[in-house]
Request: fold
Amino acid sequence: MTVRRALISGCGAYLPERVIDNAEMAALVDTTDEWIVSRTGIRQRHVAAEGEFTSHLAVKAASAALAAADCQATDVDAIVLATATPDETFPATATVVQAELGMVRGFAFDVQAVCSGFIYALAVADNFITAGQAERVLVIGAETFSRILDWSDRTTCVLFGDGAGAVLLEANEGSGVSGDPSDRGILATQLHTDGRHHDMLYVDGGPSSTQTTGQLRMLGKEVFRHAVTNLSSVVGETLAKAGLETSDIDWVVPHQANKRIIDGTARKLKLASEKVVVTVDRHANTSAASVPLALAEAVGDGRITAGDVVLMEAMGGGFAWGGCVARW
Ligand code: COA
Reply:
C-alpha cells in the first residue's frame, strides 16, 4: 500500500548583500577574530540593509525555491513561514510574502519556534500534505536577527546574522517501505519544547509585556550544555520513527549555531564530518533560516541528490528542538 509523502522539490536562499566580518566586529565590540573563530567557527555574517525586512528576504528565497521546482506561485496552496523577527506584530509575515508572490488563493501563516522554526514549519506543512489538505506548500525560514541584537553585548552580537531559505513541498506517492530508495519525501519529524528554560535564551521585550521589541539575551554556556544532548537524542528519535539507523544518513543539515555544537553532536552520533553540511562560518546563526540556507547550498552544489537520506535538526529558545528526516 502506498503512502502520501511530502517531497522536497525545490530549494532557494537569499542572503543580504552587506557582510560584516570578524575584523569589523572587533571594531564594534571588545572581541577578536581569533576568539570568535575558536569558540564558534564564525568568520562573517550577512546583515539586512536599512529598509530591508524579513519579508523581503523571504520573497527572494521563496521565488528561488519555486523556480528550482518549476512551480508557479499560483499553484501553491499554503505558505508556512518560520520567523522570530516578523515585519510587524501582525499580520503574519507569511501573508506579506503571499501578496508579493502574487498568490491569490490558499492560506499563509507564521510559525514561531525561534531557531527550530524551520523544522517546526516543515512538520506543520508535512502534516497538511499527508492529511490531504494541501498539494503544494512553501516552507520558509527568514530572519533579521540583527534587529533584535544588543550591539554592545559581545557575548551575543557576534553570533547571529540575517538571511532566508525556502523549500517547496509537493505531495508524492511513496512506498512506505522503510529503507526503500523510491520512498521519497519527508519520512519522519519529531518536535520537543521545554518551557522551563525560558531564561537561558529569550528576547527581553514584546507587545504584551514591554510594548518594545526587546533584545536577545542568552546564557551561552547553558544553551551549549543542553544543545548537544537534546540534538543527539532527537536525531535518534527521528531516525527510529522512520525505521532508519545513523548509518543510513547520507547528509546531516544541522542548525548552524556554532561549529562546536555541530561537531559535538556529530561525534556523539558517530557521524563522519564529511556528511555534515556547514555554513556557520559564512552565515553565522540565522535562526530559522539556517537549515534551509544550508540545504539550498548543498542541493545547489550537487552534494544532496535524489534518493539521499537527509537529516535536519535544530535547537533554540524555549527551549524548542526538533528533527526531520527526508529522502530526497
Ligand atoms: N569576544 C571576546 N571575549 C568574549 C566574547 C567575545 N565576543 N564573548 C564572551 N567573551 C568572554 C567572556 O566575557 C568570558 O570572559 P571572562 O572569563 O573574563 O568572564 C570568556 O570570554 C569566556 O566566556 P564563556 O561564556 O565561558 O565562553 P564559552 O567558551 O562558553 O563560549 C559561546 C561562549 C557563546 C560561544 C558558547 O557558550 C556558545 O556557543 N554557546 C551556545 C550559544 C548558541 O549557539 N546559542 C544559540 C543556540 S540557537
Q: What stands out?
A: The chain has a mean pLDDT of 97.
